[in-house]
Amino acid sequence: MNYTEFVAAYNGKATDYDGAYGAQCVDLIKVYLDKVFGIKPGSWGNAKYYWIDYAKHTRLVNAFNRISNTPSFVPQKGDIMVWNENKGGGAGHLGICTGEGNTSYFYSYDQNWSGKEMQREKHDYEDVYGVLRPKDQSKITGSTASSSVGYYVPSVKWQNGSTKEIVYADSGFSAEIGSLAPREVAKCFGKKGSAYCVQYDLDGTNKHKAGFVKYAGGVTNAPAGGRNYKNGSTTETVYADTAKKTTVGSLDKNEACLCPTKTDGMFLVIYKVNGTSNYKCGFTVYDGGVE
């Protein structure tokens, strides 16, 4: 698993890696170290000790460089940012940098900051020690072998306003397939024209549904791209939901499109509707060569 795949898998989730004290910022870093770098952290203490005791942990030293914050410093994507004891009630804090920012601010994925779940957050540099930077940057950029099929993209949080939002099967808003309740939260995986592709919980189940909405839901920079999906030698049914209750269309033989993520064992695809400028999104059973 690389950085992009990690974000796609864990963003929006509250992870309690060690089963102690619930979902803490340290749990996010522990699962990041485990899944992306193959490092299984021990009981290394509160967040600040990932900086203070860095030299005591051979696995960290072998895999990361410790870089102090300076007035000209800007973190890179994949860096682990470490805050001092002035954050977290004396425990410090940890986040995974996105690579966005400048010398005044930066963004990182944090757990137990504005919410328990992993979310993209904006920070200034107050109380920052610095970062632990991965020595093997292929873990962040992705390996050469997987670059030919592209990468799953991290979702962006979408939140509805004070009224019900209609969900459509297509970016032209011609066919209603559902709705989102006021203030309901979803994941945005792309934008086509003025339409946002969102994935949300299918009521009363542990499955999910996808479609296009008009409302931006706070999304200012929608994800773009995904893995390069190519259908096989038969027509592939596209479902609105991973429960396969509603069909929204199909992919032609050998049709190519983008697959931004995998959900519930199915593949979310965004594809162009034949003979139009509109797009549809939905879930397929066939993996289209992305895995």
Mean pLDDT, to the nearest integer, reads: 92
Strand content: 35-45%
- Summed up, the helix count is 6
Query: Which secondary-structure class do the elements indicate?
Result: mainly beta
Any idea how many domains? 2
Order of H and E elements: HHHHEEEEEEHHEEEEEEEEEEEE
Give, in spatial order, the strands making up the sheet with the most strands. 1-6-2-3-4-5
Question: In total, how many beta strands?
Answer: 18
Q: What does the radius of gyration come to? A: 20 Å
Protein name: CHAP domain-containing protein
Domain Peptidase C51: 1-133
InterPro entries: CHAP_dom (IPR007921), Papain-like_cys_pep_sf (IPR038765)
Structure, explained:
By secondary structure, the protein is mainly beta. It has two domains: 3-141, endopeptidase domain like (from Nostoc punctiforme) (endopeptidase fold (from Nostoc punctiforme)), CATH 3.90.1720; 148-291, no CATH class. It contains six helices and 18 strands. The protein has a six-stranded antiparallel β-sheet with strand order 1-6-2-3-4-5. A four-stranded antiparallel β-sheet has the order 7-10-11-12, with no helix packed on it. The radius of gyration is 20 Å and the shape is elongated.
Question: Can you summarize this structure?
Answer:
The protein is mainly β and 291 residues long. It contains six helices and 18 strands.
Draw up the topology in text.
Blueprint: H1 3-10, H2 25-37, H3 49-52, H4 58-63, E1 64-68, E2 80-83, E3 93-101, E4 106-110, E5 119-123, E6 128-134, H5 138-141, H6 144-147, E7 156-159, E8 165-168, E9 176-180, E10 185-192, E11 195-201, E12 208-213, E13 227-230, E14 236-239, E15 247-251, E16 256-263, E17 266-272, E18 279-284
Antiparallel strand pairs: 1-6, 2-3, 2-6, 3-4, 4-5, 7-10, 8-9, 10-11, 11-12, 13-16, 14-15, 16-17, 17-18
